[in-house]
Amino acid sequence: MTGARTATSIDRLMDEASEALARADYFGAQSKCERGATMARRANDFERLGRICMPWQEARRQIRQIAEDAGMVAAVPRVDEYTEGAIAPGCYLLCPPAIAIDAHELRDHARRKKTPVYVLTREPITKAGLWPVAAIRAGGGIMSRAIRVLRPGPLGAAHTQNGTVHGDAKAIPPIEWFLEAGELLGDTAIAALNPHDPAAWRVDDLLEAIEAIPEHEKLFQTLQAACFAAAKEPVPDKPRRRPVVDDPGGF
Q1: What pLDDT score does 177 carry?
Q2: Cα–Cα distance between 11 and 69 in angstroms, integer?
Q3: C-alpha distances out from residue 130 to 110, 127, 167, Å
Q4: Domain contains 119
Q5: End-to-end CA distance of the chain
Q6: Rounded Cα–Cα distance for residues 48 and 12 (Å)
Q7: What's the number of domains the chain is made of?
Q8: Is the separation of the CB atoms in 136 and 214 below 8 Å?
Q9: DSSP string spanning 47-95?
Q10: What own/partner pairs with CB < 8 Å and gap ≥ 24 does 119-124 have?
Q11: Radius of gyration of the CA atoms of the chain, in A
């Protein structure tokens, strides 16, 4: 059960998050929701964690929509070119040699600058000419699970020569492609949930997925449902365990 002091601290944070949303301080609201969510999860207070989900989703929605409305998609092979100084609002597609974990560095830089960005990562083009789009939580190491989907690249982004598919490393997709890929990535994370796991474990899976794909709204809605289910169940008496190599293709 949540201690009275912890519960009061979470409630105060969420009052502040609501005030931040009202004055359009979306980064401030996001930060307070994240702090509250961390505190609630540590206390196994799934009821409060569930109530945090909607204002957290709203803060993320506003940030994402401003990034989308900027109408800009940039291909980013090296994040260090974008993590010094100012960064423009917009959609950023990391591409080789950048990898999925680099998305966190770019998001963190934009967040410090209070600049709305939407970040995705594509991996090297496949033999079939498809673009793998991937996400991974920060700091996960060997126990992390990559979330990955395959998408046809935009027209003209690849060609075949002597039986080998070649891709344009800096090909920039239209924003419609970018947004569809992001939706599919989040939907894939939701579909991967094990419905037979305790709800608390699904909560943890969803928190990791949100860290990897913070722009996806349905993740927050699914998290809220899992939180309210977990609030009605006994807290699992054993930790969630996964195979040491849960995703051999992940970074």
Answers
A1: 93
A2: 33
A3: 29, 7, 10
A4: yes
A5: 37
A6: 12
A7: 1
A8: no
A9: HHHHHHHHHHHHHHHHHHHHHHHTT-EEEES-GGGTSSS---SEEEEE-
A10: 119/91, 119/92, 119/93, 119/94, 120/91, 120/92, 120/93, 120/94, 120/178, 120/181, 120/182, 120/185, 121/93, 121/94, 121/95, 122/93, 122/94, 122/95, 122/96, 123/96, 123/99, 123/148, 124/96, 124/167
A11: 19
- 3-class secondary structure, 129: coil
What pTM, to 2 d.p., does this model score? 0.88
The helix (H) or strand (E) run that includes residue 120 is strand 117-122
Q: Is 173 a member of any domain? A: yes
| Residue of 46, 48, 37 whose CA lies nearest to 232 | 46
Domain range enclosing 213:
4-230
Which amino acid would we find at residue 72? Answer: M
What is the CB-side half-sphere exposure of residue 152 using CA atoms within 13 A? Answer: 5
Q: For residue 33, tell me if it sits in a domain.
A: yes
CB-based contact 186:219 (threshold 8 Å)? yes
Quote the pLDDT of residue 242.
Answer: 58
241 found inside a domain:
no
* H or E element at residue 122: strand 117-122
Weakly modelled stretches of the chain, pLDDT under 50: 1, 141-143, 159-162, 165, 243-251
Residue length, the chain? 251
**Sign of the dihedral through C-alpha 247, 57, 63, 87:** negative
**Which letter does DSSP use for residue 25 in this model?**
-
Residue 188, burial from CB neighbour count under 10 angstroms (0-12, 13-18, 19+):
middle
pLDDT value at position 3? Answer: 80
